[in-house]
Structures are given as structure tokens and as C-alpha cells.
Amino acid sequence: MLQRRHLLLGAGALRAQPATLHTSEEWDKPFLYPLRTVSGRNLARRYPVEPSTGENTDHAWHRGLWWGHGIINGHDFWRELGRDKTSRLVRTPEKDRFAMVTPAGERIGTNLQRYTVKDDGAFRYIDALIQVIPGPERALTFGDTDDGGFAFRLNDAFREDRGARLMNADGLEGTKNIWGQSARWVDYSAAIDGTRAGVAVFDHPANLRHPTQWHARGYSLCAANPFGSRSFSKNRGPDGVYVLKPGQVLTFNYRVVIHEGPCEANRIEELYRHWSRG
Questions:
Q1: How many CB atoms lie within 10 A of CB 153?
Q2: Residue 93's closest CA among 214, 202, 9?
Q3: Of 99, 102, 86, which is closest to residue 134 (Cα–Cα)?
Q4: What is the dihedral of CA 37, 225, 217, 275, to 10 degrees?
């Protein structure tokens, strides 16, 4: 039976929730953490929310599941390099909405993020609605860069150099083959305590530039990124710049599938087709 759950705001119940939406002043962007399987295993990297001895501590802005982009009107909404350099997504009184604020304190647009969790047997689905809305007087220009998108960062078991399997909807495997490639979905899986588990992200057919390209890295990072075609192709592809004019709304829909137990490519494709048609 399909069971729906609403996400908690704040970090009050990390160990009880399938995922918690973190929006406090401590962080420069909202993110979901942990990312639990139906049985309770957290597949997300713990750092920096709950640091664990021996875990990789690179890229502190890679937290659970999040959205951002490296160049919007020349500002970086992906990396976090200190408040004097970092653009931020700041929670507003309006439900699910975040102000897009530059390091100088200028609000250049609004970002809406809405998440719903659904359990179905061994599968946990996180459905994400992401919208970007420019201010009334100025367009938002998304620059061409591979650093950006709807992303997850998993724990070190999902590193390719530790035996994790990275694959896309077209049957390609490994970061060298799937990084920068367009695909309907990408899946990372690994053996956790003797059980196979993984995370797949589905790109909806209605999304901009579907099938999207993927910033799929071997150190357990993956992001669906429609704005990096030249960056991904080492300047051989078309320019990925996109201009969002005042009055327009850019909408993305994604499904995250957290799976446990046997789950091969044909099963993931079946889940994708069912979701994308419905």
C-alpha cells in the first residue's frame, strides 16, 4: 500500500524521519537529510550535519538532497565559500518559498521547493517540485556550468572506487561514461551491510531540456543539470545559457527513488515509465 508522509521542517527528529527539510539560518541552502530506506538505513553522507569519523569531508555544501546552480546572474548558488562570497536561498514567510539573495543582500528572485515522501513496499519515493521565479524587473540568466542542478550526495559506500555501481537509463555504467551525458534517469547503488541499496533520480519529460545531462561523479555525488552542455563537452557543445524573463516561471519535477534489495535497470525503467506517464 502506498503511504504518504509530509516532511518536517527543522532538524528535530533526524533519527525518526525518512527525510527532514533543513531550512535554518545555519545553512545557505535548504536540503533534505537524512535519506533513509524503508527499513531505516541512511544512505546520505553524514557530514557536515552529523559528522562521522573517517568519512570524507570535501565540499561541505554537498548535503543530502538539494537544488542549486553555480551561475545565476553571475552569482554562485551552488558552492558555499563564506557569507561574503556566497549567494543564499533564504526561507521566507511564504510556504515552501526561498528568497534568492546575493552576497550583497540583493534579492533577485524566488525559489520554491516542495517535497512529498511516499512509501511503496521496498521503495521510498521523494517527489520534488522546484520552481524559479525572477523578480519583477530583471531576468535571471543561468550560466553554462557543470556545477549545479538537483543533486544528492551519498555516503562513502557509494563511491565508485569502493565498488558502487553508477548507471544511467541508456545502459551506460561508471562516471567516465555517464558524466555529462543526457539520460532519463541515473542510479547509484552499493552493498550496505550485505544488502543492495541505492538512489535513482528521474527527470520528468516536461522538464527543460529533457532528457537532462548529469553531473555524475565517482565520489557519490550526482546532479541533474540542464545548464551545462558546453561545460560538460569541454566547449564542443552548444551554449547551455538560459534566460528566464520576468513574469515567467521555470518548473522542474523530479522523482527520487530510494530502493533496497534487488533492483536492476529494467525495474528502474519500469518505475520511471509508470511515473512519467502518470
A1: 26
A2: 9
A3: 99
A4: 30
- Pairing outcome for strands 31-33 and 3-5: unpaired
Q: How confident is the model at residue 170 (pLDDT cuts 50, 70, 90)?
A: very high
Whose grid coordinates read 528521474?
202
- Give residue 6's pLDDT: 47
Please state the length of the chain. 278
The amino acid at 46: R
Q: How many CA atoms lie within 13 A of 77 on its CB side?
A: 32
Domain spans of the chain, in order of start: 3-277
Place of cell 561541505: 60
Q: For residues 204 and 65, give the distance between their C-alpha atoms in angstroms, rounded to a whole number.
A: 17
**What kind and span of H or E run contains 272?**
helix 265-277
More confident of the two residues 278 and 47: 47
Where would I find the H helices in 86-241?
A: 175-178, 229-232
Give the residue from 273, 269, 265, 169 showing the smallest Cα distance to 212.
169
The C-alpha angle with vertex 137 and arms to 131 and 138, in degrees rounded to 5, equals: 65
Determine the straight-line distance between the first and last CA of the chain, rounded to whole angstroms: 17
Cβ atoms of 94 and 107 closer than 8 Å: no
Q: How far apart are CA 104 and CA 83, in angstroms?
A: 9
Rounded alpha-carbon distances, angstroms, from residue 72 to 38, 62, 114, 224 = 36, 19, 21, 16
Cα 188–178–209 angle (5° rounding)? 105
